[in-house]
Amino acid sequence: MPSKNWKFSPSDMQERAFWNDYQVAYTKMLTNTATKKDPWYIIPADDKGVARLIVSNILVKRLQDLRPTYPQVTPETQAQLRQTLAKLKNNEL
After folding, report:
1. 6: pLDDT confidence band, cut at 50, 70 and 90?
2. Whether pLDDT at 9 is above 90
3. Residues with Cβ < 8 Å from 93, sequence gap 6 or more?
4. How confident is the model at residue 3 (pLDDT cuts 50, 70, 90)?
5. How far apart are CA 35 and CA 27, in angstroms?
């Protein structure tokens, strides 16, 4: 398709000779960097809507697994906050 010619270069054919090397490097990279805690995800990119849905689902799951909590406020900080609130109410700040 002529409208897609910009995506192809004659150098692509030269690089094709290294395809097996690229596959070995790709496999090593995934094998040595993916863990159960921090896995890699393979997202099919032929349908943007589906790809975005898959990524969204992964993000939601990962964020839920974090189990975030609010920080604990010490009694001293609570007292300071009460004093600051009182000053605000009295237009002292």
Report:
1. confident
2. no
3. 84, 87
4. confident
5. 14
47: amino acid identity, one letter: D
Report DSSP letters for 48-87, one per residue.
HHHHHHHHHHHHHHHHHHH---PPPPPHHHHHHHHHHHHH
Q: Which residue has the tokens 């094709």?
A: 16
Tokens of 33: 């960097």
pLDDT of residue 77: 96
pLDDT at 32 over 80: yes
Residues 6 or more apart in contact with residue 50 via CB below 8 angstroms: 44
Asked whether the beta carbons of 84 and 93 are under 8 A apart, the reply is yes
Rg (CA), the chain: 27
d(CA 51, CA 49): 5
Q: Read off the amino acid at residue 91.
A: N
